[in-house]
Automatic annotation (TrEMBL), chain A:
<dbReference type="GO" id="GO:0005886">
    <property type="term" value="C:plasma membrane"/>
</dbReference>
<keyword id="KW-0812">Transmembrane</keyword>
<protein>
    <recommendedName>
        <fullName>Xylose transport system permease protein XylH</fullName>
    </recommendedName>
</protein>
<dbReference type="InterPro" id="IPR001851">
    <property type="entry name" value="ABC_transp_permease"/>
</dbReference>
<keyword id="KW-1003">Cell membrane</keyword>
<keyword id="KW-1133">Transmembrane helix</keyword>
<feature type="transmembrane region" description="Helical">
    <location>
        <begin position="213"/>
        <end position="232"/>
    </location>
</feature>
<comment type="function">
    <text>Part of the binding-protein-dependent transport system for D-xylose. Probably responsible for the translocation of the substrate across the membrane.</text>
</comment>
<feature type="transmembrane region" description="Helical">
    <location>
        <begin position="263"/>
        <end position="285"/>
    </location>
</feature>
UniProtKB/TrEMBL annotation, chain B:
<dbReference type="Pfam" id="PF13407">
    <property type="entry name" value="Peripla_BP_4"/>
</dbReference>
<dbReference type="InterPro" id="IPR025997">
    <property type="entry name" value="SBP_2_dom"/>
</dbReference>
<protein>
    <submittedName>
        <fullName>Sugar ABC transporter substrate-binding protein</fullName>
    </submittedName>
</protein>
<comment type="similarity">
    <text>Belongs to the bacterial solute-binding protein 2 family.</text>
</comment>
<keyword id="KW-0614">Plasmid</keyword>
<keyword id="KW-0732">Signal</keyword>
<dbReference type="InterPro" id="IPR028082">
    <property type="entry name" value="Peripla_BP_I"/>
</dbReference>
<feature type="domain" description="Periplasmic binding protein">
    <location>
        <begin position="40"/>
        <end position="277"/>
    </location>
</feature>
<dbReference type="GO" id="GO:0030313">
    <property type="term" value="C:cell envelope"/>
</dbReference>
Length: 370, 317
C-alpha cells in the first residue's frame, strides 16, 4: 500500500501572477505609472522630459531615495528614526566645522563625520533597545538634541549659523567628489560635441552640453537601492530584518539576534542621512544649520507610499525608492507645468493620499488581511 | 550602584545650573530687554541682528535676550510674547510678521506698561497702531520696488521671484514691489521654493528652462540666494541674467564681486538690532525719544560700494 508522495503540506503553491501581485511595491509601481502619465499629459511638451529636465527631478528624487533606503530597512525592523532630518543638518555641520574650522582635509573630515554619525545612530538604537521605550520617543528627543547641537556648534565655533568655504577645501580632494561631483562628464561632453544632446545656446557656457554629467547622488541612490534590495530579499540577514519587525519574540526563539539587527539598521539609517548631509555640503560649498528640516517625515512618507507598514515586518527597498521617485517627480513636476506654484502642496498631499489608499486597498484585497 | 551614578549626575547638573544662574544675575546690572523674532533658527540674517543688539547692550550696560519660535510658527511666537510680557522685562523688541496674529499680544504688552520697539517686518503704521514707541525696519514693498526700478533701468522685462518665505506677508510684498518697479503684473513669476538647498536650486533650473525669456532673478535672502547662485552657475546663466537679492552674507558679497549678482538690497539688520536697544535705553534713562520710525533700508550694495561692506559682512552688515 504505497501512497504516492503528495505535495508537501507545508509548501503552498501559488501562481506566479499572485506572487507578483502580493509584492509590497505593487501599489508604488501603479502610483509611479499614474504620476508619470499625469505629467506626460500636463507637461509632456515642456523641458520636463528633456535630458536636463529628467536630471533635475532625478536629483531631487535621489535625495529622497537615499534617505528612504535607510528608513525602509529600519521601518521593516519595526522602528522609526525621527532624528534623520536633524542628522542631515548635523552631519553637514560636523563635516563643515572639521574642514573649515579645524582644518582637516576633506577626506579626513568626511571619515570622522561618518564615524561620529554612525555612533549616534548606534546610541539611538541602543537607547531604544535598553530602555524599551518606543523609538518614536527616543529619536524625537534626538531630533531636538541634534538640531540644537548643530546650531550651537555653528554659532560657537564659526560665529554664524552657516559654515562656508567648503568648496575650496573639497576641490581636488580624492574623496569629496564622490559626494558632490558628477559622473561620466567626459561622455556627456563627447555626446554634446557630436550634437547628440542639447548644448547651451546662450550664457557663459555657450556650446557646452546642458547636462554635463550625472550627479553622484543619483549614482549613490541607484547603488543603494540595488544593494539594499539584494540584502533584504536574497540574504539571511534580510530575513532577520523582516523577522525582527514582524514578530520579534518569535524571531528571538528561532535565534535571530533581534537587538543587533535593529541597532544595525539604526546605524544604516543614520549613515544614509549623513550621506545626504555631506553631499549637500560639498555640492553647495556650505553647511547650514537648517538643512534637512522635515526630511524625516518626507522619508517616512516615501516609504509608506512604497508599501511598507508603519508597524514593521512588511515593505521593500524598491517600493520605498519608487515612493521617493513619486515624491520627487510630483514636487518638481509642478514647476514645469504652469500650475500656480502655491498649489503644489495641495497636489502633493492629494497624490500621496491617493497612493497610500490605493496601496492599502490592493494589499488587503490580495493578501486577504483585515 | 546605578542609582548612585544617577544621583551624582543629577547633583552635578544642579550645581552647574546654579552656577550659571548666579553668573546670569551677576551680569545683569542694567536693564533687561527681550528681543523676539518670528524666524526659525539659523538664518544668517538674525545672527547679524543679534550682533547689533548685543553690541548696543554691551555699550550701554544692559542685557538682551533673544527668543524665537524654533519652527517659525507664529502661534508659538504669540505664546513667547505673552510669556515675556508676564516676566515684565524693561523693554521688548519684537517683529510684526503678521499684525493679525501677533498684534494682540504686542498690544497687551504695551497695555501692561512695557516699552515696546518693533523692528524688521511690519510697517511704521502697524507699529504705531499697536502702541509701540517706534519701528526700525525696511518697508518691504518699497524695497522691492526700488530694486525693480533698478532692474527696469537695465532693460529687464520679466523676472523670477524665488520665495522661501511663503507663509510670510513680507515675501509676497517684496515680489510684488519688484514687479511694480518693473511695471509688469506679478502673475506666476513668483515660485514657492521650499527651504531645501537642492530643491531650491532645481526649482530655479526647472523654472528657467521652462521660461527661457526670463530676464531677472530675485531672491529673498541667503537661504535662496546661495542655491540660486549655484543653479545659475550650473546652467551657464551666471553673469548674463540680472540677479538681485535681499540681505548680505560673505558668499553674496563674493558673488557681487564676481559679477553674478548685480546688487544686494541691504536692510541693515545690524541697525535693526542696534537701534531698538539704544532707543529703549535712552527713553528709560534720559526720557528722550526720537519722533519718527526709522527706515533702516533699502540700502543697495553693488560692486562699487562693496569694499567696506565686505570686510564687515556677516558680522555688522
Amino acid at each position: 500500500m504505497s501512497t504516492t508522495i503528495g505535495a508537501d503540506e507545508r509548501v503552498k503553491h501559488t501562481s506566479t501572477l499572485r506572487r507578483a501581485l502580493v509584492r509590497p511595491e505593487l501599489g508604488a509601481m501603479g502610483g509611479t505609472v499614474a504620476v508619470f502619465a499625469f505629467f506626460l499629459i500636463l507637461a509632456g511638451n515642456t523641458q520636463m522630459f528633456a535630458l536636463d529636465g529628467i536630471m533635475n527631478w532625478s536629483t531631487v528624487s535621489a535625495q529622497f531615495v537615499v534617505l528612504a533606503v535607510g528608513v525602509s530597512l529600519l521601518m521593516i525592523t519595526g522602528e522609526f528614526d525621527l532624528s534623520l532630518g536633524s542628522m542631515v543638518g548635523f552631519s553637514g555641520m560636523v563635516f563643515g566645522l572639521l574642514a573649515v574650522y579645524v582644518g582637516l582635509p576633506a577626506w579626513a573630515a568626511i571619515g570622522v563625520t561618518v564615524l561620529a554619525c554612525g555612533l549616534i545612530g548606534a546610541i539611538n538604537g541602543l537607547l531604544v533597545i535598553r530602555t524599551g521605550l518606543p523609538s518614536f520617543i527616543v529619536t524625537l528627543a534626538f531630533m531636538f538634541i541634534l538640531r540644537g547641537l548643530t546650531i550651537w556648534s555653528a554659532i560657537t565655533f564659526n560665529k554664524q549659523p552657516v559654515v562656508s568655504g567648503i568648496a575650496d577645501i573639497s576641490a581636488g580632494d580624492p574623496v569629496a567628489w564622490l559626494f558632490g561631483g558628477k559622473a561620466l562628464g567626459a561622455l556627456f561632453a563627447w555626446l554634446g560635441e557630436q550634437g547628440l544632446i542639447a548644448t547651451y545656446t546662450r550664457g557663459t557656457r555657450l556650446g557646452q552640453p546642458i547636462v554635463d554629467g550625472i550627479p553622484m547622488l543619483i549614482i549613490w541612490a541607484i547603488v543603494m537601492v540595488i544593494v539594499g534590495q539584494w540584502v533584504l530579499t536574497r540574504t539571511r540577514f534580510g530575513n532577520w530584518i523582516y523577522a525582527a519587525g514582524g514578530d520579534p519574540q518569535a524571531a528571538r526563539y528561532i535565534g535571530v539576534p533581534v537587538a543587533r539587527v535593529k541597532v544595525a539598521m539604526f546605524i544604516v539609517a543614520a549613515l544614509c542621512a549623513t550621506l545626504l548631509g555631506i553631499s549637500q555640503a560639498v555640492e553647495f560649498g556650505s553647511a547650514a544649520s537648517d538643512r534637512g528640516l522635515m526630511k524625516e517625515f518626507e522619508a517616512i512618507i516615501c516609504v509608506v507610499i512604497g508599501g511598507a507598514l508603519l508597524t514593521g515586518g512588511y515593505g521593500s527597498v524598491i517600493g520605498a525608492a519608487l515612493g521617493a521617485v513619486i515624491f520627487g517627480v510630483v514636487q518638481q513636476g509642478l514647476f514645469f507645468t504652469n500650475v500656480e506654484s502655491s498649489l503644489f502642496r495641495v497636489f502633493l498631499g492629494s497624490i500621496l493620499l491617493a497612493a497610500v489608499i490605493a496601496n492599502t486597498y490592493i494589499r488587503r484585497a490580495i493578501t486577504g488581511e483585515r | 550602584m546605578k542609582n548612585r551614578v544617577l544621583k551624582a549626575a543629577l547633583l552635578a547638573g544642579l550645581a552647574v545650573s546654579a552656577t550659571l544662574g548666579f553668573a546670569g544675575t551677576a551680569l545683569a546690572d542694567g536693564e533687561k530687554y527681550v528681543l523676539i523674532h518670528h524666524s526659525p533658527d539659523s538664518e544668517t540674517f538674525w545672527n547679524t541682528v543679534k550682533n547689533g543688539a548685543s553690541l548696543a547692550a554691551k555699550e550701554v550696560g544692559a542685557t538682551v535676550t533673544f527668543r524665537n519660535p524654533p519652527t517659525g510658527d507664529l502661534a508659538d511666537m504669540v505664546r513667547i510674547i505673552q510669556q515675556t510680557t508676564a516676566e515684565k522685562p524693561d523693554g521688548i523688541i519684537v517683529t510684526i510678521p503678521d499684525v493679525e496674529t501677533v498684534g494682540g499680544a504686542i498690544e497687551d504688552a504695551v497695555a501692561k506698561g512695557i516699552p515696546v520697539v518693533t523692528m524688521n517686518t511690519g510697517t511704521a503704521e502697524e507699529s504705531k497702531k499697536l502702541g509701540a514707541m517706534l519701528h526700525v525696519g525696511q518697508p518691504e514693498f518699497d524695497a522691492g520696488k526700488g530694486a525693480g526700478e533698478r532692474a527696469k533701468a537695465a532693460g529687464i522685462k520679466s523676472f523670477l521671484c524665488v520665495n522661501s518665505l511663503f507663509p510670510n506677508v513680507a515675501g509676497q510684498q517684496r515680489c510684488e514691489g519688484f514687479a511694480a518697479g518693473l511695471g509688469v503684473p506679478l502673475g506666476d513669476q513668483m515660485i514657492d521654493s521650499g527651504t531645501d538647498a537642492t530643491e531650491i536650486a532645481n526649482r530655479v533650473k526647472a523654472y528657467l528652462s521652462n521660461h527661457q525669456d526670463t530676464g531677472a532673478v530675485l531672491t529673498l535672502g541667503p537661504m535662496t540666494a546661495l542655491p540660486t547662485i549655484k543653479a545659475l552657475k550650473d546652467t551657464g546663466l551666471a553673469g548674463t541674467i540680472f540677479f538681485a537679492t535681499f540681505d548680505l552674507t560673505p558668499e553674496i558679497s563674493q558673488a557681487i564681486k564676481d559679477g553674478v549678482i548685480n546688487f544686494a538690497i541691504d536692510q541693515q539688520p545690524f541697525l535693526q538690532g542696534y537701534l531698538p536697544v539704544i532707543t529703549l535705553t535712552n527713553d528709560l534713562r534720559y526720557g528722550v525719544l526720537q519722533a519718527n520710525s526709522v527706515l533702516s533700508g533699502p540700502g543697495f550694495v553693488t560692486k562699487d560700494n562693496l569694499a567696506l561692506v565686505e570686510s564687515l559682512a556677516g558680522k555688522y552688515r
